[in-house]
């Protein structure tokens, strides 16, 4: 499954990874809406003097209802198709485009409601709407913070195409493993870096997301046909003396210096590509090719 491309950037998830997250978000927001409606039923706010807070609270209810509908629609569309057939899920990026301005409006309205809720009084004798609204707004902030943290986890910028695919894959998987390094010691961090390098070496030329790799590992682990023959060492075949790692590194160094940038310019003709190439250059005295 290729990575989801939206907002001209590449995401750490695929278009089929929105089913359970969107269902979970819809259930949480339904609980919030139910709590908000109960506030209106048992603490009728129109009898209070906090009219601005009442309008803002109603606006948050409407936004949450719209978000619930979009979340359920996203989950339904994300569940279509198969792993390789992503055409039935082509509307997922468009739904993300629709949800972005709604999410920004939700944040702005929540800020206004927070200011009015914590500045205003209860609004009169026997009116506890402002006090209950503070609890509801705190829960709304919990929803917003959770959504923002989720975006930071799955979103990453497109890598620089000047570097080779192995370097890009290793950096990408190292960043994906970063969340597991929280609270770990030095040895565990080094082990996670080695694991990221190992995974990137397997999937260097594949556009896969972490959920695809985890699903593949689980299927391979639970497969009844996961019995593999023992690995046998190959016999050392006779080869010339010049065929060694030291000479290979020597010739690779000069080949990359001679054919590296001309080949890049040949296949990446444009001002943007040339600018990216110049950012990689150093002074002539420090260039490896001049040594």
TrEMBL record:
GO terms for molecular function: triacylglycerol lipase activity. InterPro entries: DAG_Lipase-Related (IPR052214). One of its GO terms (biological process) is neurogenesis. It comes from the Eukaryota. One of its GO terms (cellular component) is plasma membrane. The keyword ATP-binding does not apply. This is Uncharacterized protein. It comes from Caenorhabditis latens. The keyword Secreted does not apply. PANTHER family: DIACYLGLYCEROL LIPASE HOMOLOG-RELATED, DIACYLGLYCEROL LIPASE-BETA. Keywords: Hydrolase, Lipid degradation, Lipid metabolism, Membrane, Transmembrane, Transmembrane helix.
């Amino acid at each position: 499954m290729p990575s989801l491309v939206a907002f001209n950037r590449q995401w750490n998830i695929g278009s089929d990874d929105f089913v359970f997250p969107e269902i979970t978000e819809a259930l949480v927001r339904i609980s919030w809406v139910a709590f908000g409606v109960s506030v209106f039923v048992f603490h009728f706010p129109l009898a209070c003097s906090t009219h601005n807070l009442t309008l803002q609270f109603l606006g948050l209810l409407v936004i949450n209802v719209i978000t619930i509908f979009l979340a359920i629609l996203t989950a339904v569309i994300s569940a279509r198709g198969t792993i390789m057939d992503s055409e039935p899920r082509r509307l997922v990026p468009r739904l993300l485009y629709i949800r972005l301005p709604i999410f920004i409006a939700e944040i702005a309205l929540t800020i206004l409601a927070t200011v009015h809720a914590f500045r205003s009084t209860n609004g009169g004798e026997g009116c506890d709407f402002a006090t209950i609204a503070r609890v509801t707004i705190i829960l709304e902030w919990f929803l917003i913070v959770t959504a923002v943290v989720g975006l930071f986890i799955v979103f990453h910028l497109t890598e620089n195409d000047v570097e080779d695919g192995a370097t890009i894959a290793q950096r990408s998987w190292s960043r994906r493993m970063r969340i597991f390094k929280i609270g770990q010691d030095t040895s565990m961090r080094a082990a996670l870096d080695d694991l990221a390098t190992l995974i990137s070496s397997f999937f260097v030329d594949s556009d896969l997301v972490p959920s695809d790799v985890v699903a593949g590992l689980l299927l391979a682990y639970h497969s009844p046909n996961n019995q593999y023959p023992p690995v046998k060492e190959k016999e050392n075949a006779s080869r010339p003396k010049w065929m060694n790692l030291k000479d290979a590194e020597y010739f690779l160094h000069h080949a990359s210096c001679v054919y590296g940038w001309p080949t890049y310019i040949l296949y990446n003709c444009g001002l943007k590509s040339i600018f990216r190439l110049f950012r990689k250059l150093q002074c002539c005295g420090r260039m490896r090719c001049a040594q």
